[in-house]
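<backbone_tokenisation>
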Amino acid sequence: MSQNKTQGKSRTKSEGQHESVGPYESGEAAEAADGGPRPEPLRFFGTTWLAHDGGYAARRVAVAVGSLAAAVGACLLLRFAYQGLTIADASPFIGILVIVMFSVCSAIAFRKTWEGFSKRPVDRAREEQLRSLKGIGFIGSLVAYFLRSLTEAPGERLRRTEYETAVARYERRRTTRTGNPAARRTSRPKRPKRK
């Protein structure tokens, strides 16, 4: 029963929450056996970004090559689709409209994906509304992945900052809790009893 109350409280908190919150602030991060925070896994990298081990360099190369190849392939498909419009004798306005639509959606997808590598989204409901635009402009997201993977794993800097902050906070809490709490209570001077 207490579990249901806890779930209800967390549900109402997350429904009304519109702030940018990392997993360590919201308590969603998995805790290690000793109670300390664990690094949040990244897509395609897992937790190899923390110590740059476990094939981290190979994964970065694979993400860079894969995202670039996918972006080039998507551009070729869009070119074939545009050629199909010209073969079908569609009006020039439709061709221009398709080009503008994919360009704008790709620019929005690139910007939102790039921002997602450095900060958490402020309003999750707005991000959900932009999901279809990002889907249409997936080429922008692929280009953002390619460019970011040239310097680091996409999202690594954000996760590293959050993780190091959480570890420092955990260490401070752990050092302040050392010692016997009962001994601290008995060391206080006793108050005289009232008559």
Q: What stands out?
A: Confidence is low (pLDDT under 50) at residues 1-21, 26-33. The chain has nine helices and no strands.
